[in-house]
């Protein structure tokens, strides 16, 4: 289990990070780097798709769930409420067959209806069977004016669930909202799988670079991480320094925890 940091040109639009008008990000300029190839243990050279991967029943159900959610969103936007209701019911049936999705939906409904005792019970059940599922597949944290946004996504085409291989990509956007230039020196990740196994990964820079990020600019890149379980979490920090003065001390910029999940952010249909 390890992170892969490689330069890139792959299309990862599904990893788009949410923008906020009040964030001050939209006036910043960004350098964007993306994944070109990823090496997975036991997959050969890693320069192309994983060979011989078979679509297990779990793999197909993940695809089906994502498709139903997408179709529901399209129907709702088109104001086709009859079709939206049908798709909503289909999603409910699907979620009833998946314990984590069912509990996530029940938790959300209990909170909305202010049934907090029930909500606490559902939350505890979720923690028991899937300790990372209460995290979102995105995070957002700011340290000393340096904002780090992350979003992860499950890559079905490179995963082999039958062999215990689940492949996740993530995109990171670093925005310098301070008035001083900084340089990213090192990265540190803590990766935890669904069994509680934790790995600490450290390295110089990101994707082979130690980027300098000027005030009101940003740096964005994508990378990937294989897991042996269908869910997990990542968190960590970047070691940076201000470069406008000689002899300044380094400081750590937090990367807030985010989930790695085959079902994304789970049940969000009401």
Automatic annotation (TrEMBL):
Pfam families per record: DUF525, UVR
Protein species of origin: Sesamum radiatum (Black benniseed)
Organism domain of life: Eukaryota
Ranges of residues in domain ApaG: 140-267
Domain UVR: 62-97, 97-132
Listed name of the protein: Protein ApaG
